[in-house]
Amino acid sequence: MLMSIVFVAYETNASDRNFFLPDPLGGMKIVIDAGHGGEDGGASKGEVIEKEITLAIAQQVEKRLKKKGATVVMTRTKNGDVIDEHASSEQYSTLRERKKQDIFLRKDIVEKEQPNVFITIHANAIPETKWRGAQVFYHKGGHADGELLAKSIQQSIRTNLQNTDREALSIKQIYLLKKVEVPAALVETGFISNDEERALLVDKKYQEKMADAIVEGIEDYLLAKIE
């Protein structure tokens, strides 16, 4: 028996030896929300639309979290909104009402899943083109650990991407951050309104780097809570 174990270990390539190690995020559940979707495109500049950027980055985050052993629940996985994916029979008379009910449905998904962490991913846009930099937000009226989570992700973005000095901030207007009863953070991945940053946000390699930074921040937060 002992010789068999030694033989298996010897034959295993170094890249495969994680098979014998515990997954760093095993047992953790995380809900990832790609902001906007469907008729609600979010911010835009020319052909660049926020809902497409948020979904692309969210999917990269999902992939990386799963590799680390986490259970990941996505509020949406397609171009449509969350209602399209989870309550397609529902009809609304106005886009405003649909957007409101779509946000409520995202909250319901978090309440149903009861994850360790909830992350909603967005991209920013304002009239002035000079502003740039990813920034993470939390709600002081939400879960007490939201601030720690947001700061962990913000620090990871600053360290890994090295293109922003922004700090995590509290924000009052975001319904989801306040209402979900789990640690929650909103990641504004950059400014579509800034020419340079817009080019980065649609670049797959940069989206992957952003996803790496978000995941590292989530992992740092969760592992610190375990310790």
UniProtKB/TrEMBL annotation:
Top-level class of the enzyme under EC nomenclature: hydrolase
Note the Gene3D superfamilies from the entry: Zn-dependent exopeptidases
Its transmembrane ranges are none
UniProt-recorded Gene Ontology molecular function terms:
N-acetylmuramoyl-L-alanine amidase activity
Q: What is its EC number?
A: 3.5.1.28
InterPro entries, per the entry? MurNAc-LAA_cat (IPR002508), N-acetylmuramoyl_amidase_3 (IPR050695)
Which segments constitute the MurNAc-LAA domain?
107-219
Does the record's keyword annotation contain Hydrolase? Answer: yes
The entry's protein name is: N-acetylmuramoyl-L-alanine amidase
- Provide the species name: Lysinibacillus parviboronicapiens
Phylogenetic placement of the source organism: Bacteria, Bacillati, Bacillota, Bacilli, Bacillales
